[in-house]
Design a protein that fits this description.
It contains 3 helices and 8 strands. It has one domain (7-108): uncharacterized conserved protein from methanopyrus kandleri fold like. By secondary structure, it is of the alpha+beta class. Helix 2 (57-66) packs across helix 3 (75-83). The strands form 2 sheets. The chain has a 6-stranded mixed beta sheet.
């Protein structure tokens, strides 16, 4: 049986001075909001920020390798990014309640 291809949304936000932020989220969480009252955190996986182009996860990791600022949400894309050696697992935060939570990771290259 062939392994199902994992898809993610990627959106590139252009800023001033050629700076850009790449936002990537697992396809199944787009439009969701995750809240953790104990930590005082909330993360909205909004269409306007994350909802770009639907690509396979390998293509997204290639884009992350070249990016200076990356905002990731979702267990699949974060797992692949850490496996590729692009981020430390210690940098991952979890937002939400048990059973309804999301992983979040920021990468900044200076």
């Amino acid at each position: 049986m062939m392994e199902q291809e994992i898809m993610v949304f990627v959106k590139v936000h252009k800023g001033s001075d050629k700076e850009e932020v790449i936002a990537v989220c697992d396809a199944d969480i787009l439009g969701e909001t995750f809240s953790d009252d104990e930590k005082g955190l909330s993360l909205r996986i909004s269409e306007s920020f994350y909802g770009g182009t639907l690509v396979n996860i390998e293509k997204a990791v290639e884009m992350i390798e070249k990016a200076t600022n990356v905002n990731l949400a979702g267990k699949n894309i974060i797992k692949k990014t850490v496996e590729a050696g692009l981020a430390s697992p210690e940098a991952i935060i979890t937002i939400g309640k048990k059973g309804r939570e999301v992983s979040h990771l920021l990468i900044f290259r200076l």
